[in-house]
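Need a sequence for this fold. Nothing fancy.
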């Protein structure tokens, strides 16, 4: 079986490692981490990657996959509106990547209800987004200073970091292909700087492995000529005729 993944870079090590060992033929198009923050932009990136893939197939420079797998969950409805042309598109039935890293959407929702106010991290998130969060915040602060002066910059930084008040703890998902003390230390600093506690939860690569194996039993398989649409309930999404 030939699979083409279009995936968030947060999955880089997990997916890359398993793809290398898979008997299936797997190609991967990586997308920048953080696109889910604006669902419209995420959808645009996915559509551009699909257009590029279809164009390469039409020109005969890329082999046609049996399935196109999106390395995302529902992701704030960012995958909604994506249409499968003549190749089925597969999406895990999760709210986002956290359900994938925890091994199931069921476990994610259980922890979500038990541990309200948890901000989730793992090695992939830190490597693709948070490794230099201190430098990024310093750059934002310096930009405010340059534009508005130090007094105003302090106030603006309070607004910039206001979202942190919605959380009480940082949940670090352990395990995976690369989980080091250095990465856990970054999570600890981030939690401390945010005024949160830090809790550890064992990760589970089961869903990533299932995707690589071509086991789509916990996924939406959107057939050709259909479009992905969000639904209320455990199914998360459905395929509707275009």
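Here you go.
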């Amino acid at each position: 079986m030939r699979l083409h993944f279009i995936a968030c870079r947060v999955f880089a090590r997990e997916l890359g490692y398993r793809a290398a060992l898979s008997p299936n033929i797997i190609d991967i198009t990586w997308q920048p981490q953080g696109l889910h923050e604006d669902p419209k932009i995420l959808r645009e990136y996915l559509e551009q990657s699909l257009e590029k893939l279809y164009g390469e197939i039409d020109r005969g420079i890329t082999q046609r996959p049996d399935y196109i797998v999106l390395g995302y969950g529902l992701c704030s409805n960012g995958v909604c509106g994506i249409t499968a042309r003549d190749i089925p598109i597969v999406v895990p039935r999760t709210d986002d990547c956290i359900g994938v890293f925890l091994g199931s959407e069921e476990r994610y929702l259980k922890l979500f209800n038990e541990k309200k106010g948890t901000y989730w991290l793992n090695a992939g998130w830190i490597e693709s987004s948070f490794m230099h969060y201190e430098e990024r915040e310093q750059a934002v602060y310096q930009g405010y200073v340059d534009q508005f002066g130090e007094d105003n910059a302090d106030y603006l930084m309070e607004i910039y970091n206001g979202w942190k008040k919605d959380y009480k703890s940082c949940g670090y998902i352990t395990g995976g292909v690369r989980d080091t003390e250095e990465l856990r230390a970054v999570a600890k600093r981030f939690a401390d700087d945010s005024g949160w506690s830090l809790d550890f939860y064992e990760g589970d690569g089961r869903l990533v492995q299932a995707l690589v194996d071509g086991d789509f039993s916990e996924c939406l398989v959107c057939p050709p000529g259909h479009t992905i649409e969000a639904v209320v309930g455990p199914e998360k999404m459905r395929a509707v005729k275009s």
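For context: The chain has two domains: 2-97+205-241, 105-202.
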